[in-house]
């Protein structure tokens, strides 16, 4: 593995009395594409939220580039999310009132870029993703797959170190899903972006270099299948 | 796989062809299907000739032994059209080795350990093959046929994996039943 970029050390997360993550540790190398799979409710999204600084784990720590991001101020975490991380969800990430190009420029403008400069970069990325001619359209005028490619452009326009994707193809038919995943992997490869993709779909996981399987809030490696099965 | 019907179809598409041309086109056009062995092809052509699906079209001498060219007959065309209009029997029997291995492992060994470890090994092999097939898509430059082959195989491997996960979840009950 390349040098570690993201590391979870014994993290736990509880929702009330229910544990969603239990003693979870993992290391992700720079430039790796890692898939997190497992049945619905096993804690995949919670893990992604903890690693991306959206949620603070109750126990343990998360390190990004060897620096703790658990016990830092909310302002620091939010700056990190804006500059070093990109996120892509199943849907609902792009603003319906804005055009594609306005949606994609938004993160750059939040970072202080001027619209004209931001728009040039946004357009270039939209072109690359095959939706350049939709730049002036609003999400309502696009198919689900086109919207998701705009959302991908928005997640990557700041050239983040890490892209977090949670069921990125979950709302798409298989061909549209394939387009999103193919472009995601190519762009990540070109920029050396580290990717953590959460999915319950093995065909999506097959785009990754490595797969992590979870069960009941914990890791389940191939060797542990037996143990997890016997515990039932 | 019905080699007879595949060859009838290739012949219908190609027009009059020699045996070796049929083999070449079979392997080229049905990418992902197991290539035809020469022996199997000549046996099949002989049977098709006997059944009246094909007939000899002409004799040509091309600097060697006679090579026979074949044409599709009316009976052959009817047989091909019938075959194309019928559904393939959906999963009449299970022919997958992996299914048989799991059951045999449960019958032949004293506990579930062999079946479990086989399933874990198989899962890793399936995932590795799926990653390989997915690279056909991300590498770029794949033909649509290559993508269709990859998709067919990926979807079947995916179905296997889901079956394996469910089976693992109730392996204890399955063993009890198989051993009873
Ligand atoms: N906001 C929440 N409040 C209470 N329970 C939650 C909340 N979010 C998730 N959970 C529970 O935590 C567990 C893990 O959820 P999640 O991380 O969403 O799993 P996954 O993404 O693998 O489907 C589930 O049992 C879920 O019901
Ligand atoms: Mg989830």
UniProtKB/TrEMBL annotation, chain A:
SMART domains, per database record: AAA
Record key words, sorted: ATP-binding, Nucleotide-binding, Transport
GO CC annotation, single: plasma membrane
Xref: Pfam families: ABC_tran
GO molecular function: ATP binding; ATP hydrolysis activity; transmembrane transporter activity
InterPro entries hit by this protein: AAA+_ATPase (IPR003593), ABC_transporter-like_ATP-bd (IPR003439), ABC_transporter-like_CS (IPR017871), ABC_transpr_LolD-like (IPR015854), MacB-like_ATP-bd (IPR017911), P-loop_NTPase (IPR027417)
Keyword Acetylation: no
Signal sequence coordinates: none
Domain ABC transporter positions: 6-231
Name of the protein described by the UniProt record: ABC transporter ATP-binding protein
Biological source species: Micromonospora craterilacus
Automatic annotation (TrEMBL), chain B:
Pfam families according to UniProt: PadR
InterPro entries membership: Tscrpt_reg_PadR_N, WH-like_DNA-bd_sf, WH_DNA-bd_sf
Transmembrane intervals: none
Domain Transcription regulator PadR N-terminal, first and last residues per copy: 7-81
PANTHER family: NEGATIVE TRANSCRIPTION REGULATOR PADR, TRANSCRIPTIONAL REGULATOR YQJI
Name of the featured protein: PadR family transcriptional regulator
Protein's organism: Micromonospora craterilacus
